[in-house]
Amino acid sequence: MLNFIVRRLAQIPLVMLALSVLIVALTMLLTPAQRAAGYIRSDQQAAQLERIIRERGLDQPFPVQYGKWLQSTLSGDLGFSKASGQPVLDTIIDRLPNTIELTLLTAIPIILIGVWLGTLSALHKDRFIDQVLRVFVVLGYSLPTFVLGIILLAVFYGYLGWLPGAGQVEVVNQFAIGDLRRYTGMLGVDALLNGRFDIALDVLRHLIMPALTLFIVSSATILKVMRNNMLEALTSDYVRTARAKGLPERTVNLKHARRNALLSVITLGGFLIINLLSGSIITETIFAYPGIGQWVVQSALQLDVPAVLGFALLSAIIVVVVSTLTDILYGVVDPRVRFD
Amino acid sequence: MTSVPAAPATSQRRSRLRDFLTSRPILKLRRNRLAMVGMVIALLFLLIGFFAPIIARPSAGSNCLRDLGASSPQQVANPLDRVFWQAHFAAPATCYAIERESFSPVPTPPSETARFGTSQGYDIFYGLVWGTRTMFKLSFIIVGITLVLGVIIGAISGFYGGWIDNLIQRFIDVLFALPGLVLTIILITFLKASNPGIDPSLPIILAFTVTGWAGYARIVRGDVLRTRQLEYVDAARSLGARDPRLILKHVVPNSLASALPIAILDLGTVPLGIAALSFLGLGFPTGYAEWGQLVDFARAWLQPQYWYVMVYPAAFIILFSLAFNLFGDALRDAYDPKTR
Q1: How far apart are CA A40 and CA A250, in angstroms?
Q2: Residue B65 to chain A, least CA–CA distance (Å)
Q3: What is the dihedral of CA B302, B308, B314, B315, to 10 degrees?
Q4: Orientation angle between helical segments A292-301 and B180-194, nearest 10 degrees
């Protein structure tokens, strides 16, 4: 077991290394001056372009450049983002908690409701509830995120006027944020911890539409996989054995069939986090929510190379860590996987 | 000598078609009524894309007509005229610029000249119809390249195994460490930053190719691992067939059954990906006929009186996505050995 975990963990630095080589190789498409521009913060510095190129070795061969890049990246210098007017690392530290808050608010209901409805759908196969849920599944993964987001925006903000259309808090509360003590960086959570329930509620109101968009698009997949796994489990030998033993139907369904069907939900949970990461790029842009997804779009529009690079590294870390963790978790839960 | 009868050849061909139509996966597909509806709608979209010059005829005095060398819009619809053929098979770039009714951003409701109304002054109907053409054009190019690349690389990886296989698979692992949308955004930013003034389709094609081939390679590799051990491959080898012939004539055709349904599904998902990218502003410049920016325009006009700005593009895209998903999913299921 320990062997399996160690082997799996050892892959993280390897993949990251290979990926960073690829990403830095991409920057070789740019001229040294363009690469140097990524480290410039002010007009005064712009005059010293030559010096920056020399200091950072930006006109050197690729291996040298990669070495220098790795050195400065590991010391936390990811360059300066034009789009946010801040160093890349500071921008990530500011904005990542917002995206995490949105992701958490979305992922937990998706998994719980997806598993529940998927089981329900399988247990009532071809009956009315199953048909309704299957239509929901087809709609869910046919609806492109950006179209769904705009529709929700038009209905709940443009037409009904129930929910705010953009941002994270109302303008009135904008000033109050400065007084909050930041524990987690997640605005809603911090507001709660500070006892400012009005701000927390305001944040929640702003989160409803982005979260709902991601929920509708992503829960369909979990629901579908859960239904299929459950159907497969229900026809398996051990379920027949359990029935033959005379166990009550409920015990067979929930204890025997669903436990096994749940196994792949672990893997799926990993996929979900990764999906939400891409989904948040589009959703945050639609609802002008100040997370990392909105920032990377702004950066890409302004051809802000260091920002896009920083985002690429960040998402690679998230993906690699999440998929390693799900693999390990799967190995812990299901011993058959460990010995592959 | 020369009296080889032609009739048997055609009847043989016809029976091959019949064999195909009555093969088990196709029969299963034909029984699925929703999938058939999806197929019909998807084909309709294909027709809309192809006949865009007739359906959304360029208006008199437009740059498109000028570049076609036509004096009146009627010529585009007349198959006896050279203009008809040029418009359908080699439409000049100016035809892909959405016709602009005015320079006022305020939407105008559907009318004689603009059937779906205008948004930011652009004719929504023209944008959607010619956008379909843009989308299919890119989609066929991208799916074609990725399919060929994926099949070749996947076949080599599976057929030779060993260190080649290992190298290719680890490379794919590294590529998959970034979500598709993230990788696309990175590539497009770099390509645009390093080649200012590049044709907007090129970065899109390149980015989608880089993210797309690996999926096919994985599927084909898995299939090849299975087929390369079959007796007929050994038989061909013992008859003296070399590796390239073995791969192309004996192994690849057998793996296509699992790659082609995915390719058809991708013909529908690639346009949605491009539309999402353009929605974010990272695809085509404003005014180029495609779908994403038409949805983006709607973000500024959410009041109920401007319903047409959102409803037409949204309905168009959702219908497209639904049609391809219904058909593509059923096709994939029909050819999936597990569900047979």
Answers
A1: 65
A2: 33
A3: 140
A4: 20
Dist. CA A66–CA A49, nearest whole Å: 19
Task: Return the residue matching tokens 């999402």.
Answer: B276
Cβ contact (<8 Å) for B275 and A146? Answer: yes
- The neighbour count for residue B240, using CB atoms within 10 Å, is 7
Instruction: Give dist(CA A238, CA A47) in Å, integer.
Output: 74
**From the CA of A179, how many Å to the nearest CA of chain B?**
33
Q: How far is C-alpha A186 from the chain's CA centre?
A: 15
* Residue A51, both tokens: 């010096």
CA A35 centroid distance within chain: 28
Cβ partners under 8 Å of residue B227, min gap 6: B233, B250, B251, B254, B255
8 Å CB contact between A213 and A155? no
Region of residue A269 (phi > 0: left; psi between -120 and 50: alpha; otherwise: beta):
alpha
Using an 8 Å Cβ cutoff, are B310 and B154 in contact?
A: no
B235's tokens: 């038989």
Find all residues with CB under 8 Å of A8, minimum gap 6, and list them. A324, A327, A328, A331
Does the beta-carbon distance from A144 to B321 stay under 8 Å?
yes
Q: Helix H segments across B69-123?
A: 82-89
Q: B151, B216 in Cβ contact below 8 A?
A: yes
Residue of B nearest to A296 (CA): B185
- Minimal-distance CA residue of chain A relative to B171: A18
Judged on CB neighbours under 10 Å (0-12, 13-18, 19+), B339 is exposed
A27 reaches B (C-beta below 8 A): yes
Q: Which helix (H) or strand (E) element contains residue B122?
A: strand B122-123
DSSP assignment of B44-65 equals HHHHHHHTHHHHTPPPTT-HHH
- The pLDDT tens digits along chain A (340 residues) read 788 788 888 888 888 888 888 888 888 888 787 777 777 777 777 777 778 787 777 778 888 888 888 888 888 888 888 888 888 898 999 899 999 999 989 988 998 998 899 888 888 888 888 888 988 888 888 889 999 999 999 899 888 888 888 888 787 777 777 777 888 888 888 888 887 888 888 888 899 999 999 999 888 888 888 888 888 888 888 888 888 888 888 888 877 888 888 887 887 888 888 888 888 899 999 999 999 999 999 998 888 888 888 899 898 888 888 888 888 888 787 777 665 4
pTM surpassing 0.95? no
Residue A151: both structure tokens together: 């529709």
CA–chain centroid gap for B215, Å, is: 16
- Using alpha carbons, list the distances in angstroms from residue A12 to A16, A19, B154: 6, 11, 25
The answer to whether A155 contacts chain B (CB < 8 Å) is no
| Interchain contact, B281 vs A275, CB within 8 Å | no
Q: What is the largest CA-CA distance in chain A?
A: 83
Q: Give yes or no for A138 touching B (CB within 8 A).
A: yes
Contact A30 B194 (CB under 8 A): yes
Closest CA to B122 of B297, B275, B272, B278: B297
Residues of A in contact with B304 (CB under 8 A): 158-159
